[in-house]
Amino acid sequence: MKTVAAIPALFAGLSIASPLQARQLPDHFDINGFLVQCQTFTCWVEFGVSLPGRSGGCVVTFPGISEGIPDTPQRSVCDQPDIGYEVIMHDQGFGGIDFSVNWNYASGKYLVGNHSIPGSQWQAFADGAATLERYTGPSDFSIADLQEASSI
To answer: I want to staple 133 with a disulfide (CB 3.0 to 4.6 A). Which of 38, 70, 86, 125 is the partner?
Structure first.
């Protein structure tokens, strides 16, 4: 009989337990060490991204100055495969750079942040006989105004 009396007490304790908290999505992505640079044959983008409980390093390379820096999206995933990004360089970078980061936080659910870099932060430098082009803006910044999406 003692066993039967213990069961209601167990359920009573469970009923006052706090409900599970819904996952809190971040309101920004922190970007650090952001570098975009193009040489004669290769361009590369490198940066770190941090969000609550996650961080990753990201690198992508694509055709350089002599090949004509593509205006098409350059996409890749970071070393954490649930974090990805896209870079679009307009007018060889001199027309600005659109940069976005996405986090696949659940099956078919993404959080996406966009950041536009003005063409004034993209400059060409002489490097001996070669030309070097690079991003000259801040290397650390935050991307706010994140949007939820079902695909990217």
So the answer is: 38
Using CA atoms, how far apart are residues 91 and 37, in angstroms rounded to an integer? 15
Q: What does the pLDDT look like over 77-131, one tens digit per residue?
A: 899 999 999 999 899 889 999 999 999 999 999 999 999 999 999 999 887 888 8
Amino acid in the structure at residue 109? K
The values of phi and psi at residue 7, to 5°, are -65, -50
Q: How far apart (Å, rounded) are the C-alpha atoms in residues 107 and 119?
A: 36
CATH number of the structural domain 22-149: 2.40.350.20
Enter the DSSP assignment of 92. Answer: G
Side chain identity at 27, as an amino acid letter?
A: D
What's this model's pTM, rounded to 2 decimal places? 0.79
Q: What Rg value do the Cα atoms of the chain yield, rounded? A: 23
Tokens of 127: 């490097």
- Whether 89 and 129 have beta carbons less than 8 Å apart is answered as no
Residue 37 has a CB neighbour count (10 Å cut-off) of 16
Which 3 state secondary structure label does DSSP give 147? Answer: strand
Domain boundaries, the chain: 22-149
